[in-house]
Amino acid sequence: MRTSRPKNLNLFTIRFPIPAIVSILHRISGFFLFLLIPFILWVLDVSLTPAGFDSLQGWLGQFYVKLLVWILLIPFCYHLIAGIRHLLSDIHIGDTLKGGRRGAVLTFVVSFLLLILAGVWLW
Question: Is CB count within 10 Å lower at the N or C end of the chain?
Fold first, then answer.
């Protein structure tokens, strides 16, 4: 059977619903967190010695390092909240069309508030 349906492969012209955007960003943040694993393990290794811990405290007192840590917390906070949303969806909480939209918007709002709280905690 031959079909001649038009194919739109330009992802920038497709209008995704907000739950799809949340799901795609959840995957991207998970990939970014996977890439951060070696850096996190290195920081853990350095912090386990008294001299390394003191040097890390000195580094973390600087503004730009705090800003970098805050930026690195963005995918963690988002991935955490979006993962909770996906787990709730697995047990059929918010899996309707209306509930999915509400959950997606709530994911963005709670992630933003968590990032603000992380920024206040860092400074």
Answer: N
Instruction: Say what angle helices 18-47 and 63-90 make with each other, to 10 degrees.
Output: 130
Structurally, the chain folds into a number of domains equal to 1
> What would the pLDDT profile of 24-51 be if each residue is shown by its tens digit?
999 999 999 999 999 999 999 999 999 9
Q: Which domain holds residue 23?
A: 18-32+42-122
Can you tell me the distance from the alpha carbon of 31 to that of 79, in angstroms, rounded to the nearest whole number? 10
Counts of helices then strands in the chain (DSSP H, E): 4, 0
Indicate whether 84 belongs to any domain.
yes
DSSP 58-115: HHHTSHHHHHHHHHHHHHHHHHHHHHHHHHHHHTTSS-SHHHHHHHHHHHHHHHHHHH
37 lies in some domain: no
pTM assigned to the model: 0.83
